[in-house]
Design goal:
Elements: E1 4-11, E2 16-21, H1 24-33, H2 38-42, E3 45-54, H3 57-69, H4 72-81, H5 83-88
Antiparallel strand pairs: 1-2, 1-3
Length: about 90
Amino acid sequence: MLTWWLYVLECRGGVLYTGIAKDVDARFAAHLAGTGAIFTRLNPPLRILAKASLPTRSAALRAEYAFKQASRADKLAWCAIGLERFIASP
């Protein structure tokens, strides 16, 4: 079974980008090459801030949606302590 990942990128201007992928490193390379999301073409990524594995695409999509609902301050805090804790939180 392939693992899905929730990942957070820090982009130019300090903005955050959140996405899901099966291979975060390949997806990051796509973002850097300008073949990823339109958002990252306009705001090139600088680094991967955090990532966490999930068992299914459905779980990854739910985690992505929940993470995107958080405030910027909360997102940065979750990245600092680890996205695994975010996923495990109720």
